[in-house]
Design goal:
Strand content: 5-15%
Mean pLDDT: 90
GO molecular function: endonuclease activity
Largest sheet: 2 strands, antiparallel
Number of domains: 1
Distance between the termini: 36 Å
Helix content: 25-40%
Number of helices: 4
Oligomer: single chain
Keywords: Endonuclease, Hydrolase, Nuclease
Protein name: HNH endonuclease
Low-confidence stretches: none
Strand order of the largest sheet: 1-2
Structural class: alpha+beta
Length: about 100
C-alpha cells in the first residue's frame, strides 16, 4: 500500500515530487469557491478541463464518480493508469 495520496480519478499514487493540483468539484466561477476539492495529478486535472466546460462540470460532473463515468475521461483513465505516477504529457490541451 502506498503512503502517498491516491488520485481519485485514475487511482495512481501522487508522490510529492509529481505535478499535482486541486480540482474544485463545483467550479469557482459556478459557485464552488470554498466548496469541496480533490487532489489530482496535474495531467488528470488538465484532461478534465480539456474535456468539459465549467457549466458542464457544475451541472453534470460535480462528483468524482460522474467524472469517471464520462466516456472520454474513462478512455483517458484507462490509458493513463498504465503510466507511472510521474508521467506527464503535453497532449491534453484545449477542449476537444
Amino acid at each position: 500500500m502506498s503512503e502517498f495520496p491516491t488520485c481519485p480519478l485514475c487511482g495512481r499514487p501522487i508522490p510529492p515530487d509529481v505535478p499535482q493540483s486541486q480540482h474544485h468539484l463545483i467550479p469557482k466561477l459556478r459557485g464552488g469557491k470554498g466548496g469541496p476539492v480533490v487532489l489530482l495529478h496535474h495531467i488528470c486535472h488538465r484532461e478534465i478541463h480539456a474535456t468539459l466546460s465549467e457549466t458542464e462540470l457544475a451541472r453534470d460532473y460535480a462528483t468524482v464518480e460522474a467524472l469517471r463515468a464520462h466516456p472520454r475521461l474513462d478512455r483517458f483513465i484507462r490509458w493513463v493508469r498504465k503510466r507511472p505516477p510521474g508521467f506527464n504529457s503535453r497532449i491534453p490541451g484545449k477542449r476537444r
